[in-house]
Design brief:
By secondary structure, the chain is an alpha/beta fold. The chain is 38% helix and 16% strand.
Length: 233
């Protein structure tokens, strides 16, 4: 079936910690087949400000309205960067969504789920480069072979980002959607539900690990497509 140009044609995808923009590939191919113009941001993961800046640069290259999508840590990034005038809606995939004046650490502490089990190295970076641990925490519903490849290309995240406070939360002014992953070992499903309710997002739940964009790309693409159509109204 030939694709048609959707009303809101620009989709900008923001990856989370321990991954890069290539993790969106299965979702990108599906959205492009639907007629969307898709761009995946490459976050340096060196600070919240640096990731927001990388996202804002991509947003400035879009012509027309944008649906901004963030996975995991990328949710904090879109919460700040989503204030751009051309952003018409926000999609959070198993994502963090702090409020104005709140950091990711503050958010998790408030929800009773402080970050545990990760020790930064001498450079202040947190790595997830052990394949078995990557598989367990991020991608239990993907083959171990795929987890090994993901661990090989994982990108460490600087701990300073978790303490940086959001200046102005975009979800307070723009419509939002949330994908809750019920088999998630990285961000507990109950915490995801609390975040989704807190920001007033339209919520969909699927039985997936944290890396739903790789294990359930059809469902992720359908959610993004539906959100883009609603945001264009």
């Amino acid at each position: 079936m030939a694709s048609t140009t959707p009303p809101l044609r620009n989709i900008v995808l923001v990856h989370g910690a321990f991954t890069d923009g290539s993790s969106w590939y299965p979702v990108i191919s599906r959205l492009q087949a639907m007629g969307y113009h898709v761009t995946a941001v490459q976050n340096p993961l060196t600070s919240l400000a640096d990731d927001v800046s990388a996202t804002e640069k991509v947003l400035r290259r879009q012509t027309g309205g944008v649906l901004l999508v963030g996975h995991s840590w990328g949710g904090a990034v879109i919460t700040q960067a989503g204030g751009a005038a051309n952003v018409k809606g926000l999609v959070y995939l198993s994502a963090l969504a702090p409020d104005s004046g709140e950091s990711v650490s503050d958010l998790l502490q408030t929800l009773g789920a402080p970050m545990e089990g990760f020790t930064p190295d001498a450079d202040g970076l947190i790595w997830l480069d052990d394949p078995a641990r990557f598989h367990q925490v991020m991608a239990a519903d993907l083959p171990m072979e795929k987890a090994r490849a993901l661990a090989a290309i994982q990108q460490p995240i600087a701990t300073v980002g978790f303490a940086a406070k959001i200046r102005k939360a975009a979800w307070r002014e723009k419509p939002s959607w949330y994908l809750r992953t019920t088999q998630d070992e990285a961000l507990p499903p109950a915490i995801q539900q609390a975040i989704a309710q807190r920001i007033g997002a339209k919520t969909v739940s699927i039985a997936s690990s944290h890396m739903s964009l790789l294990s359930h790309p059809d469902q992720v693409a359908r959610l993004i497509d539906g959100a883009a159509r609603e945001a264009a109204r």
